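step=encode ok
step=design start
structure_in=
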């Protein structure tokens, strides 16, 4: 095995780089590879530390499909630092940097994980607004435009909806906005821009979730179509890294455009999809930043249940 030392040096260099810059799943994968341990052995070592984690969960963690967040999972991360001979707090720090550290912070962006984590909170807010799970509207088209500010923050989001009622009496839509890490939903502002007006607004401080009624001033009958547009002024959170939209069921066209301030341009952008919250990301494709308008976009002619998003990296 004459090349083994060279391979070990490469693995060590990759691990050192991942521990410095993350993200968590890359560092974990590099650490496991550098130690040459199969996941079954990692699981065995964890059990000797009194921590129970399945091989499937470990696989998801190193793929980036899931991240540790429950107390038991965070105990496992600390044990992994010892098992994989890593500096103390090295993996925990990467989780904290991405918003899922031991303090229970939200993810650094509105990833599919943050949507899942906030689902209980969202149910509570929707109940306060007397909104049923089925809002009575089918989406024919949805165009979202995000503006990322000079501080790399999500400054504002604008949504343009084309919907069709599938039952009589629909007169409103409940918009949901999920802030990035550090968001202060009480400082956000909802603007009714076209064919609607703002009704009640509710938020949950710890998760950065905001829900707002948009009233139509008309009652739709089954089969009626309607267009409306609204915006959410945010700008309250830390640096944004991605935007993800979840779809509970198949629908019409979806377009997402992300525009960057000239003072804060990302080094790379990409689109991605996920079939479910537990699935790894797929369909990754690099997106070129347009010169004059400093934006990237994706268009899905007909969405399927799952998640679509755009991510970007800063220097």
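sequence_out=
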């Amino acid at each position: 095995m004459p090349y083994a030392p060279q391979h070990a040096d490469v693995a060590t260099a990759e691990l050192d780089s991942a521990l410095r810059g993350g993200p968590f799943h890359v560092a974990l994968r590099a650490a496991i590879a550098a130690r040459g341990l199969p996941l079954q052995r990692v699981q065995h070592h964890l059990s000797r530390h009194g921590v129970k984690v399945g091989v499937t969960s470990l696989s998801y963690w190193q793929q980036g499909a899931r991240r540790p967040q429950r107390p038991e999972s965070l105990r496992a991360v600390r044990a992994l630092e010892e098992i994989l001979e890593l500096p103390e707090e090295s993996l925990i720090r990467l989780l904290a940097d991405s918003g899922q550290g031991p303090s229970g912070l939200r993810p650094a962006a509105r990833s599919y994980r943050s949507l899942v984590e906030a689902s209980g909170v969202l149910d509570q807010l929707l109940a306060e607004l007397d909104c049923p799970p089925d809002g009575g509207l089918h989406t024919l088209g949805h165009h979202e435009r995000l503006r990322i500010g000079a501080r790399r923050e999500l400054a504002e989001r604008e949504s343009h909806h084309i919907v069709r009622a599938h039952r009589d009496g629909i007169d409103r839509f409940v918009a949901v906005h999920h802030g990035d890490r550090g968001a202060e939903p009480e400082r956000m502002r909802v603007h009714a821009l076209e064919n609607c007006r703002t009704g009640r607004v509710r938020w949950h401080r710890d998760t950065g979730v905001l829900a707002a009624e948009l009233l139509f001033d008309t009652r739709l009958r089954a089969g009626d179509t309607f267009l409306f547009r609204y915006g959410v002024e945010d700008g309250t959170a830390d640096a944004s890294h991605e935007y993800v939209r979840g779809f509970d069921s198949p629908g019409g066209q979806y377009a997402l455009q992300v525009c960057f301030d000239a003072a804060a341009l990302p080094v790379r952008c990409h689109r991605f999809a996920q079939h479910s919250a537990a699935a790894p990301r797929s369909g990754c494709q690099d997106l070129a930043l347009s010169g004059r308008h400093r934006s990237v976009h994706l268009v899905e002619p007909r969405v399927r249940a799952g998640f679509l998003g755009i991510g970007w990296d800063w220097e």
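step=design ok
step=annotate ok -> The helical segments are 4-21, 24-35, 39-48, 55-63, 71-83, 90-97, 112-117, 119-128.
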